[in-house]
Write a structure and sequence with these properties.
Elements lengths: L3 H17 L7 H8 L3 H13 L4 E3 L5 E3 L2 H4 L3 H9 L2 H4 L17 H17 L6 H5 L8
Antiparallel strand pairs: 1-2
Length: about 140
């Protein structure tokens, strides 16, 4: 459903939220290890997320990535839109360019309902809300 880039972006953002909730910063190596991602790939993703304001970064010996209070309240839907755009929330389930209410594809009406449910679920899921589940081992970010 999401691109591999988007999957890593979501996992990295949640990982950063967990590790920086007390004001710390986390480096690329720790993030890559924590979410089972190649370092070079996650570095590019985080650079993009930083440019788009999803995560913050600081340079220097005490540098790294972190989330401020505003970023902790962003939704997973915000991360998805920053990386993959909003196609998953608006596009045709069969990838048709001309799918619409007037000219629906065979799965249009059911897929439209599912798209809306997906958006609502991801929009309600705030990045900072997952820290307790991760710390309690009720949720995981890598296999």
């Amino acid at each position: 459903m999401f691109s591999k880039t988007c999957e890593y972006a979501i996992r990295a953002t949640i990982f950063i939220a967990q590790k920086t909730k007390e004001g710390e910063r986390v480096g690329i190596k720790e993030i890559a290890k924590g979410i089972d991602s190649p370092e070079h790939f996650i570095a590019k993703i985080l650079q993009d997320l930083s440019r788009k304001g999803i995560v913050q970064s600081a340079k220097g010996p005490n540098g790294g990535f972190y989330l401020d209070k505003v970023s902790m309240k962003q939704s997973i839907a915000d991360v998805v839109k920053a990386i993959d755009g909003d196609k998953v929330f608006q596009g045709c389930g069969l990838g048709l360019k001309q799918c619409s209410e007037a000219e629906p594809c065979p799965i249009h009406h059911e897929f439209k309902r599912l798209r809306k449910q997906l958006f609502v679920m991801l929009d309600k899921a705030k990045v900072g809300a997952f820290t307790e589940a991760l710390e309690s081992s009720l949720a995981f970010l890598k296999r």
